[in-house]
Specification:
Elements (H helix, E strand, L loop, with lengths): L2 H8 L1 H6 L1 H7 L4 H10 L17 H14 L1 H19 L2 H8 L7 E2 L6 E6 L2 E11 L7 E8 L12 E7 L4 E3 L14 E11 L3 E3 H5 L2 H6 L10 H30 L12 H33 L6 H26 L12 H12 L7 H12 L11
Parallel strand pairs: 1-4, 2-4
Antiparallel strand pairs: 2-3, 3-7, 4-5, 5-8, 6-7
Length: 390
């Protein structure tokens, strides 16, 4: 077990005590952030020469799940914000120094949706746009924003040229009152806006080159961690956040079942239907985690030995990753239906985990149909849709 995960488990009660306050604030409490920073987990995928730990991806998986199991919103932030050091590590060294040089503990938010429009100018771009879902953004000093290169009229050039623009906090605004949701309220995934912000060339990454490892090969040659492919690592981080919540939901169900007696006098802890659903839920959640952990470990071994993660490998990973997260969510949902009306009360811990899990299921990286389609088309010689993320 990595020290980051061990720290979280040793401070689990402190994390759990911050859940309600984080939801009420609509962002992580300062104490939650202190605990995450003290664990060192946000630096697991950060390059060593940037003050990070440059750990194995499975260490990151375990840390994110440990956080989410005890504080769902914090686990989600851990997964999303925790993946960004991986991309910064393959970026221009000047950007790495700007982000981490003064403070290796710096957090970087996102979103990657190519909503922004970027006009090429001397030395860089002028970026304008408004992006929703900037997870953990209140505690971040930088943000990665997706956008398309545009012409003088603001229309995306053809073919689309998608870039990742990295901006410091003074160059964008966090819009308050834009995160009003049924679950994962504590993530503070608010809208951010940039208005004609100048982004120098060295703070801009070509989206296609991020995905095809051009930056990794140039900036971090020979590094297994940074050869792992963005199209695998980002969904992996989302899966980790989802699994943590699912595991927490199963734990909450144990406590709920222990004391529940139905209005008909049925004792849940001896009810065969309830016990069967609990058994399926725990088994399916743990099997899903094991499935993804095994695949990622195998791919890491491949790149560590000098191999590559092929298109077929990545399509298969996405197929299996969405099936794993879906399996875990389905198992929890089936269990929740048998928990009775007491489980819908806001005072029920199980209610919060279930609600947060529903929101986690809506993330594009957990959307199954597109992944199944892309994998199937490839298997039978069809053309993979350009929107497929792998």
């Amino acid at each position: 077990m990595h020290d980051a995960t061990r720290y979280v488990l040793e401070h689990a009660e402190e994390l759990r005590a911050e859940v309600s306050a984080s939801d009420e604030l609509g962002r992580l409490t300062d104490r939650t952030v202190e605990l995450l920073r003290a664990s060192g987990g946000m630096k697991l995928l950060q390059a060593q020469d940037c003050g990070g730990l440059q750990a194995h991806p499975v260490d990151f998986l375990d840390w994110v799940m440990a956080v989410g199991e005890n504080h769902p919103s914090a686990g989600w932030v851990a997964g999303v914000v925790g993946i960004h050091p991986w991309e910064i590590a393959i970026a221009d060294p000047r950007l790495q120094k700007e982000v981490y040089g003064a403070d290796p503990e710096t957090w970087v938010a996102s979103p990657y949706a190519p909503i922004g429009r970027a006009l090429p100018v001397q030395g860089g771009f002028r970026l304008t746009g408004r992006w929703p879902y900037s997870t953990g953004t209140d505690h971040a000093e930088w943000v990665v924003l997706g956008g398309m290169v545009a012409d003088d009229q603001g229309r995306p050039v053809s073919p689309p040229d998608v870039r990742h623009f990295v901006l410091p906090r003074p160059d964008y605004e966090v819009l308050e009152g834009t995160w009003n949701v049924m679950g994962l309220a504590g993530t503070g995934s608010k809208d951010v806006e940039a208005r004609d912000a100048f982004v120098p060339d060295y703070r801009v990454l070509d989206g296609a080159k991020v995905r095809d490892n051009s930056y990794s090969n140039a900036t971090r040659p020979g590094s297994a961690l940074y050869a792992m492919r963005f199209g695998l690592m980002f969904p992996f981080a989302i899966a980790a956040g989802t699994f943590g919540i699912a595991r927490g939901a199963v734990n909450a169900a144990y406590a709920h079942i222990e004391k529940r007696v139905s209005t008909q006098g049925s004792v849940s802890k001896t009810d065969p239907f309830v016990l069967a659903a609990l058994a399926r839920a725990e088994s399916d959640v743990e099997a899903s985690i094991s499935h993804v952990r095994t695949i990622v470990s195998a791919h890491f071994d491949t790149v560590a030995a000098g191999g590559d993660i092929t298109v077929k490998d990545r399509l298969r990973f996405r197929r299996d990753q969405v099936r794993a997260t879906d399996r875990a969510m389905e198992a929890v949902n089936d269990l929740y239906r048998l928990m009775g009306s007491s489980a819908i009360q806001k005072s029920s811990e199980l209610e919060r985990y279930w609600r947060d899990l529903q929101v986690a299921s809506t993330h594009v990286c957990n959307a199954r149909e597109a992944c199944y389609l892309a994998w199937g088309l490839d298997v039978f010689g069809g053309e993979i849709p350009p929107t497929a993320q792998y």
